[in-house]
Recover the amino acids of this structure.
């Protein structure tokens, strides 16, 4: 008999804690906003990914009509042409690897447990209170792109 009230008291003590986990305090909300800001900045930076990747390919290279370039290429001249192509290809591959790293960073951030909690909380709050949520527009906040700004 004495065990029943103890079990009930324990269940009652756990109920407020479970409800408290759903209520986000101000510090947790601010941390979530910083995380969302970081994600937003990283995603916006991905807009330049393809132009950065092809930049090495569209840069002007030395012309094949250079004075040292004739129809009968000597071995040193042929090597020079191959070196230019190798340098261009290496620069392109570096830019592709950098783009892959940036995409992976954003993907990892979005799939992170913290981000999932934030997205789940936002979805839950939107379902609870569908009206009254103001759309955020970047042009209303000129310093949004700076992480050091609050």
């Amino acid at each position: 008999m004495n065990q029943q009230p103890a079990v009930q008291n324990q269940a009652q003590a756990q109920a407020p804690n479970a409800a408290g986990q759903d209520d986000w305090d101000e510090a947790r909300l601010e941390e979530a906003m910083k995380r969302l800001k970081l994600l937003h900045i990283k995603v916006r930076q991905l807009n330049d990914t393809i132009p950065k990747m092809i930049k090495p390919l569209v840069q002007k290279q030395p012309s094949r009509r250079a004075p040292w370039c004739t129809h009968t290429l000597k071995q040193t001249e042929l090597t020079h042409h191959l070196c230019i192509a190798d340098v261009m290809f290496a620069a392109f591959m570096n830019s592709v690897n950098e783009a892959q790293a940036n995409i992976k960073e954003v993907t990892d951030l979005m799939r992170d447990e913290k981000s999932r909690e934030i997205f789940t909380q936002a979805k839950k709050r939107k379902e609870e209170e569908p009206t009254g949520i103001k759309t955020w527009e970047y042009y209303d906040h000129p310093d949004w792109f700076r992480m050091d700004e609050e």
